[in-house]
Amino acid sequence: MRKISLFICSALMVGLVSCEKELDQAPLSDASAANFYRDAADFEQAVNGIYAQLRPYPDRHFNLSEVRSDNMYATTEIGVREHEPINNFVNTLETNSLVISAWNENFNGIMRANTVLDRLNASVVPDDAQRNRFEGEARFLRALYYFDLVRLYGKVPVYDASVSPAEALEVPRSPVAEVYSLIVSDLNTAIEMLPPSHGAVNRGRATSWAAKSLLALVHLTRSAPTYGIEGPGLDVNEYAEALTLLNDVINNGPYAWVEDYSSIFDYNNENNPDIVFDIQFLSGGLGTGGTYPGTMAPNSYFNAVGIPFPAGLETKPLSSDLIETFAPEDERLGVAVQQGFTDEFGNSDPRPFFRKFLDEDDYGLDRFDWGINFPIIRYTDVLMMKAEAILQGAPGTQEEVDEIINMARVRAGLEPVSGVTLDMYLEERRREFAGEGHRWHDLVRTGQVIEEMNEWLPTEDTRNVMPETLDPNYIIYPIPFSQLQVKEGLYEQNPGY
């Protein structure tokens, strides 16, 4: 089946790339785009360009969620890789390339969505269904990019339309509640405008079910405690709203339970019934391959298995605490983690790494070109979020929670349990979604991040590179230094940095 092309070769992209060079400041409008949006084919291409900005999403959440969390102790004796300050909770991250890229990449996606929304009208796309789909996709993606930003940085500037460079310099960071207002509005509109499914030629595009699932996650995240900071939690108790959406997806959506855990991530079983929304990748040197499977394993492993790479990234070891949370018989451990390997010189390397998305027989040109899709929302996640909503106070029973958790446990080859608590739920999510970029967000959303990390630090930080204890300021990242320099006083840095 044809996947959505992540990169579009056209005059539009030339204009967008030239504009993005200025995005160290803010998302700007593209004056040359006015001559491009002439018919439905142009808008199809432009919407594909919004999807294209999802390419770095898996790497971003690996570095800023997995590496940040208790799933990884991603530090080495070298101490020079950009992910290590993320791992080590240093307070000078405003110049870190990963923090900067996350800001720019998300705002580039927002800029593209705004450009489409500003120019979309019935005169250029007369077909109502097609025009609604374009608008629904643009709003869904804009909401996703803003949700990414609010979880990472807290307050951010809100652009609900294209702006000129001069106008951008007058837009301050908006309160988190205002950012969420746009996210919720966009997703509600997307739910109304997006179709419930797409034909094979458009497989991978957002659907109304994906929008409902994402909105449920937004409600859960908004309901998190504030921790006394201007972060993603507003303590608004919207668990019932989340549950209503999740029940709709579960009861009426086209998804189904996949009995074989490993098959969910099989290169030959993409778009299986567990996938609600994912990022579509194609390998083969087209610029549409995923880079993330090649960043999770050490250089020496790829050397040993004969996969070439143009540049090197040191390994990002998993924490011993994560490995120990898996029972020996848990089938998810072997799918998600490789525990050591033999290097090209015959030496044994015991370091564990994530391999959930790695198939050594199915790569493109090198270790940064993989065709495996990356799931953003899975049906298993929808079910587990229902359990979370009930545990947090939404109407429901303990039996419903236990049933959902035991579905995942039995699939993994484990015995069922009863009386599932929030702590038990989080540990089950940790094993189920290991390597999928959820862990830090899960801890923050459920109010457990400070307690959990402060219990973990003394036993795992064997190199003494982390703070003795974490305070809530570490929950979000700093505003990139380049943004603070655009206009004096426009933005204030997040506390703690």
From TrEMBL:
Query: What region holds the SusD-like N-terminal domain?
Result: 36-220
Domain of life (superkingdom): Bacteria
Which terms are listed as keywords in the entry?
Answer: Cell outer membrane, Membrane, Signal
State where it is primarily located: membrane
What organism is the protein native to? Answer: Pontibacter diazotrophicus
- Cell compartment(s), UniProt: Cell outer membrane
Q: Which family does it belong to?
A: Belongs to the SusD family.
Q: What is this protein called?
A: RagB/SusD family nutrient uptake outer membrane protein
Q: Which residues form the RagB/SusD domain?
A: 342-497
InterPro entries for this protein:
SusD-like_N (IPR033985), SusD_RagB_dom (IPR012944), TPR-like_helical_dom_sf (IPR011990)
> Cellular component terms, GO, for this chain's entry?
cell outer membrane
